[in-house]
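cron nightly-structures :: item 1 of 1
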Amino acid sequence: MGSSDGACPKSNRIDMVQHPPHYTFGTIEVIDVIEAWRLPFHIANAVKYVARCDKKGKKLEDLKKAKWYVDRYLNHHKKNLSMPRGTSWIAQNEEPYITTVLDDWKLEGPVRQILVCLFFCDWVEVDRLLVNYIRELELKEA
């Protein structure tokens, strides 16, 4: 598990390879969640970008990357005539629980909602939330 500041355990230097601070903002690292829940590649990347969007200083870019990965995942399944079912990546009894993770990461608002929808495969809502949040951020930048 990660440290909350991304520092190397034996020194105060930040380890940008093994524990970068934009992935170690709680006690549970993003990679640990991805591995524990065995998320598919595209969804794992979307989770990574959404989870870090408030941490790395490139919120709009990270959300656009997340949307790109979700779209690519869905397009891949459409091409192969095997749309992923709207179930969940995580079983109720698996650790860490989704609420534990989201509380640990201190995520609120649209970012939290997007991750919940990603974890529970609610593709329509993921798309709606990402599109609206991206649009909102673009308007603020304009």
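cron nightly-structures :: done
The two ends are 39 Å apart (CA to CA).
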